[in-house]
């Protein structure tokens, strides 16, 4: 009789071939049998629960080093696994910026023994490191290159076409893009109204996003470089990106699919402030239209925490960004419960899509030989987001008080239980994500 380190019993397992009620056997951190029979060192009863491929959040800001009063790698990853997330791609706008081999190594060292989920770190493009990016993107634990076309911290702004072309010419992996046009935003700074965060999307308007996305598509095509446009907020951009799938993939966020400016800014003020902005209900509905046409490839949280003290400064002195890694999956499960998308589409957007476009090794599906990454959910659970459930150091969420249907019950990272029924596991077990060889077909 077979023996396993871990046996998940009685759950509905969402395999590439569809859902099946089966036991799953895990050994040495990997899936070894679906429909397993035998003994195990630990058995977890999943009767009545759904076992999804581990959720991968491909855009988080965990603020370490330099901004740890907002968040750090430990607290951010706690929030991740509490929300069912097994792996994250972390962004480079820290202090100092993550723009060198030394900075990547520093983050990997900081993560070891402290992060609850698996992880990879983006290296930020600057106006000075373009020639180094081809080597930097190949470093172990690196998610690839991130370009900020619109205002960012430190030296991470790359806004001129010539500089963008240099960055795109250096390397092979898919490049992540924050697409807002710096010149247009500078020209429109006068549209900001003191004390009125609802003027944020007036300043950073549709055209600033569409202009930047159009520019980067043109430059990417000239460089023959694949790109990934982050946190898309306008239906016009998604329509354009849908016409350029040979060169571009894209992301939307749960907050842009859930919040509408007409309601959010009067209700929570600067807590709804982020870049690109929360826009109108018509924009939100347009994102759903293109989501259901299959255009977005992934959903990322753009988890970007600030303290309440910082967020409560009067607009525009208030910083942009909101926590989101812990609420990413709960919001999507609720949308699925209300028929806005299928559970299979949730899986595609939170695990399989990331594996496909970024070339992750051993993640993104429940199949023999893959990492034993599972997000176990109760699709019928009705509950309310409360502050005491939140693990981010920021301690707040724009969704506090929201009633949801569907909740993460367990998070298993390479066979280790990182969270079960709102309780963290024994110790952080996160490790660097592995990627396919650079230049592999399909990923880059």
Automatic annotation (TrEMBL):
<dbReference type="Pfam" id="PF01979">
    <property type="entry name" value="Amidohydro_1"/>
</dbReference>
<keyword id="KW-0378">Hydrolase</keyword>
<dbReference type="GO" id="GO:0006145">
    <property type="term" value="P:purine nucleobase catabolic process"/>
</dbReference>
<comment type="function">
    <text>Catalyzes the reversible cyclization of carbamoyl aspartate to dihydroorotate.</text>
</comment>
<comment type="similarity">
    <text>Belongs to the metallo-dependent hydrolases superfamily. DHOase family. Class I DHOase subfamily.</text>
</comment>
<keyword id="KW-0479">Metal-binding</keyword>
<dbReference type="InterPro" id="IPR006680">
    <property type="entry name" value="Amidohydro-rel"/>
</dbReference>
<protein>
    <submittedName>
        <fullName>Dihydroorotase</fullName>
        <ecNumber>3.5.2.3</ecNumber>
    </submittedName>
</protein>
<dbReference type="InterPro" id="IPR032466">
    <property type="entry name" value="Metal_Hydrolase"/>
</dbReference>
<dbReference type="InterPro" id="IPR002195">
    <property type="entry name" value="Dihydroorotase_CS"/>
</dbReference>
<dbReference type="GO" id="GO:0004038">
    <property type="term" value="F:allantoinase activity"/>
</dbReference>
<dbReference type="GO" id="GO:0004151">
    <property type="term" value="F:dihydroorotase activity"/>
</dbReference>
<dbReference type="GO" id="GO:0046872">
    <property type="term" value="F:metal ion binding"/>
</dbReference>
<dbReference type="InterPro" id="IPR011059">
    <property type="entry name" value="Metal-dep_hydrolase_composite"/>
</dbReference>
<dbReference type="InterPro" id="IPR050138">
    <property type="entry name" value="DHOase/Allantoinase_Hydrolase"/>
</dbReference>
<feature type="domain" description="Amidohydrolase-related">
    <location>
        <begin position="51"/>
        <end position="417"/>
    </location>
</feature>
<dbReference type="GO" id="GO:0005737">
    <property type="term" value="C:cytoplasm"/>
</dbReference>
């Amino acid at each position: 009789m077979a023996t396993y380190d871990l046996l998940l019993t009685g759950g509905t397992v969402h395999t590439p071939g569809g859902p099946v009620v089966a036991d799953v056997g895990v050994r040495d951190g990997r899936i070894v049998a679906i429909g397993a029979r035998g003994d195990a060192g630990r058995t977890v009863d999943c009767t009545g629960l759904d076992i999804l491929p581990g959720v991968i959040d491909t855009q988080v800001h965990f603020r370490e080093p330099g901004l740890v009063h907002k968040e750090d790698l430990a607290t951010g990853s706690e929030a991740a696994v509490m929300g069912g997330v097994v792996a994250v791609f972390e962004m480079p706008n820290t202090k100092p910026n993550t723009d060198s081999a030394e900075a990547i190594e520093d983050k990997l060292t900081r993560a070891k023994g402290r992060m609850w989920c698996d992880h990879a770190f983006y290296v930020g493009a600057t106006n000075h490191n373009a020639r180094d990016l081809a080597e930097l993107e190949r470093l172990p634990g690196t998610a690839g290159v991130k370009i900020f076309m619109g205002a960012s911290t430190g030296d991470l702004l790359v806004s001129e076409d010539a500089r963008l072309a240099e960055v795109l010419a250096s390397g092979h992996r898919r490049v992540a893009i924050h697409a807002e046009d710096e010149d247009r935003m500078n020209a429109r700074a006068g549209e900001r109204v003191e004390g009125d965060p609802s003027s944020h999307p007036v300043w950073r308007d549709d055209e600033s996003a569409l202009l930047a996305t159009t520019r980067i598509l043109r430059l990417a095509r000239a460089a023959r470089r694949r790109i990934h446009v982050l946190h898309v907020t306008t239906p016009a951009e998604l329509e354009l990106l849908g016409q350029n799938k040979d060169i571009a993939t894209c992301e939307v966020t749960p907050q842009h699919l859930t919040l509408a400016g007409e309601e959010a800014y009067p209700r929570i003020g600067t807590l709804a402030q982020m870049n690109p902005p929360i826009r109108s209900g018509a924009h939100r509905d347009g994102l759903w239209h293109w989501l259901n046409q299959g255009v977005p490839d992934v959903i990322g949280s753009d988890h970007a925490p600030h303290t309440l003290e910082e967020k409560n400064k009067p607009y525009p002195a208030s910083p942009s960004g909101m926590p989101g890694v812990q609420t990413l999956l709960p919001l999507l499960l609720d949308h699925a419960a209300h028929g806005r998308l299928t559970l299979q589409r949730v899986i595609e957007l939170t695990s399989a899509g990331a594996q496909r476009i970024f070339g992750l090794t051993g993640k993104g599906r429940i199949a023999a030989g893959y990492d034993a990454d599972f997000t176990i959910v109760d699709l019928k659970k009705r509950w309310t987001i409360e502050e005491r459930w939140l693990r981010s150091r920021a301690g707040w969420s724009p969704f506090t008080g929201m009633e949801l249907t569907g909740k993460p019950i367990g998070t298993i990272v390479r066979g280790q239980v990182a969270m079960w029924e709102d309780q963290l596991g024994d110790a952080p077990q996160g490790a660097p994500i592995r990627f396919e060889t650079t230049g592999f077909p399909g990923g880059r």
